[in-house]
Design brief:
The structure is a single chain. The longest helix is centred in the middle third of the chain and has 21 residues. The chain is α/β, with parallel strands linked by helices and about 250 residues long. Helices cover about 45% and strands about 15% of the residues. The model has no long low-confidence stretch (mean pLDDT about 95). It has one domain: Decaprenyl diphosphate synthase-like (Undecaprenyl pyrophosphate synthetase, 3-Layer(aba) Sandwich), CATH 3.40.1180.
């Protein structure tokens, strides 16, 4: 072990110790960005970049578990990503299927699928659902797996679900308009019943939401990390928690 590793380890331990008494998030959303650029920078192919990103998911969940996070949302595939060429999309879907199955097989976390599964190939949707169903009774940290996910699509699906529910009850449009409020939307989101994300982390240096949890992130704190997702380390996670703990949350005020 070199001097750099020793110093890095000492810094990491000191940072972790400083967080023990700090206010930490209940729900962390993570935009796993930069796999393709990571691969390009190393002369690797795109699939290798996505696989390197998949390999970093389990460590992240362990770090979240260690500090008491209750819910983690991982954005693995957007609705826009579904328009990528088949030669890129098919290997990516296979990698996602495998990593979700591997996470389920650990029995450590309760997996919850969020996204428009009807937009995915039938085989992919079936395998993801089987993996999530296998963790239904796991009493542990909830891991939302966002695949085929888009924030606008989620809100549209929530409105559609709400309208269908009230139509089934015989509620007229006029009656619904009289009582309609934001909770009607919240009750039909993919993450209904969960706390909204306190902290949203995006890797790769991009500083935009890109449609991630548009409704739920209204009061979230954001942390943008320069590292590509496959290079995201424990110390980067701790720095995100430190930045969150140091902020005064205003909840829109």
């Amino acid at each position: 072990m070199g001097l750099r590793d020793v110093l890095y380890g000492a810094y990491e331990r000191r940072l972790a110790a400083s967080l023990r008494q700090q206010r930490l998030p209940r729900h962390v959303g993570v935009m796993l960005d930069g796999n393709r650029r990571w691969a390009k920078a190393r002369g690797a192919n795109t699939a290798q970049g996505h696989q390197a990103g998949a390999d970093n998911i389990s460590p992240l969940l362990g770090w979240c578990e260690d500090v008491g996070v209750e819910v983690v949302t991982l954005w693995l595939l957007s609705t826009d990503n579904l328009n990528r060429p088949a030669k890129e999309l098919e290997p990516l879907l296979a990698i996602i299927e495998n990593v979700v199955a591997d996470l389920a097989a650990t029995g450590r976390w309760q997996l919850n699928l969020v996204g428009a599964l009807d937009l995915l190939p039938a085989g992919t949707a079936r395998r993801l659902k089987e993996a999530a169903d296998a963790t239904h009774n796991v009493d542990a940290m909830i891991v939302n797996v966002a695949v085929g996910y888009g924030g606008r699509r989620e809100i549209a699906d929530a409105v559609r679900s709400m309208l269908l529910e009230h139509a089934a009850k015989g509620t007229s449009i006029e009656e619904l308009a009289e009582v309609f409020d934001v909770e009607h939307i919240a009750d039909h989101l993919y993450t209904k019943g969960q706390p909204d994300p306190d902290l949203v982390i995006r890797t790769s240096g991009e500083q935009r939401l890109g449609g991630f949890m548009l409704w739920q992130s209204a009061h979230s704190e954001f942390y943008f990390c320069e590292a590509y997702w496959p290079d995201f380390r424990h110390v980067d996670f701790l720095r995100a928690l430190r930045a969150y703990a140091e902020r005064e949350r205003r909840y829109g005020s």
